[in-house]
Fold this sequence. Notes:
The protein is of the alpha+beta class. The chain has a single domain, classed as Arc Repressor Mutant, subunit A, CATH 1.10.10. The protein contains 4 helices and 3 strands, in the order αβααββα. Strands 1-3-2 form a 3-stranded antiparallel beta sheet. α1 crosses α3 (47-59) and α1 packs antiparallel against α4. It is globular and about 55 Å long.
Amino acid sequence: xxxxxxxxxxxxxxxxxxxxxxxxxxxxxxxxxxxxxxxxxxxxxxxxxxxxxxxxxxxxxxxxxxxxxxxxxxxxxxxxxxxxxxxxxxxxxxxxxxxxxxxxxxxxxxxxxx
Length: 114
């Protein structure tokens, strides 16, 4: 089975929101976030894309981070949703639903060439 590749501009538009959603399930680390995004069908998200998003979300106060010892290896940086992150996730997810419904309505209009 081949992995579906989404246009980059789509991923840039929604990836931060999806990362917030994954972190909302509880403290997690980068590799696990990337795996969860892949499981959700968003494709492979490289560390060079994911970690700057996590850094930005932390700078915005939407996630916090802490280091914890690894089970059988080096320590891991865990990310946790903050109260502000929970509020942002709620608001942005609602906005995203409205936006995608409007875009889908436009794209489904009869004037779209076959």
